[in-house]
Amino acid sequence: MIMKKLTAFLLLLTMFMSPAIALAEGSDSSTAQSAAPVVEETSSEVPADSTADAVAPASATEKGFREILKDKFIEGDYIWMSPILICLIIGLAVAIERIIYLNMATINTKKFLTELESALKSGGAKAGLAVCQKTPGPVAGIFAEGLNRADEGIDVVEKAVVSYGGVEMGKMEKALPWLSLFIALAPMLGFLGTVIGMIFAFDKIEAAGDISPTVVAGGIKVALLTTVGGLIVAMILQIFYNYIMSKIEGLVNEMEEASVNFVDMLVKTGVAKSGNSKS
User: Fold this and answer.
1) DSSP label of 105
2) Domain ranges of the chain
3) Which residues, 6 or more positions from 109, have their beta carbon under 8 angstroms from its beta carbon?
4) Which of 7, 56, 186, 258 could be 233's S-S partner, Cβ–Cβ 3.0 to 4.6 Å?
5) 138-148 vs 213-269: helix axis angle to the nearest 10?
6) Burial class of residue 196 (count of CB atoms within 10 Å of its CB; 0-12, 13-18, 19+)
7) Max CA-CA distance within the chain?
């Protein structure tokens, strides 16, 4: 549910930013047109060298980073750059949703174990189950499943903890295959644009009957821009993917360590006895 909301939010943000960029471009162009007569009036009084020196730095700093990205996106041909942008938007939505989920699943394990042990000593399995149910995260979910089987013996509890641990790990890795897909798909789309751009370049050479930089430059530029776009998207998503995998690995290590302590705790408190028979 969170992932769907994030995806919709990012798509809407992209849609609403396009008119804003167009409006900003219109205001910039109108400002440039209104400033043109002033330049013409003062050009007769100011020497040509000083005018060139004053205009050159302004034109160099006129475009910001966003404008440069937008220009490169248009120059790379929207037919090939749009799928790469879609991979970035959906991939970021998946990554952000997973990060939020994993952060919500992270708890202070030592504090939780202390509270659980106190509850088991004072109220038995029911009190421990109440502590697990009010605590978020996979560790509490595994322990709750084990406490539900506490009356069947410690061996059954261990099997339940191991089995449900796999279920919780599957929940943590949910939607990660899609993120891996976008990491692999973005460079492929970029390389596809590269091949298509080179084909267009050779078609122009064949039609012109001559190899000249002006004929070849357009197709090669499209090819290079699509490749760069795909590689940048893949690198961004790869960073998020590695961060998510490191979070999952940390949670799994906590689950395994806490499960060992949990089994020992059940034996010490007498909540679950050794053997498979009911006590």
Assistant:
1) H
2) 78-279
3) 139, 254, 257, 258
4) 186
5) 40
6) middle
7) 104
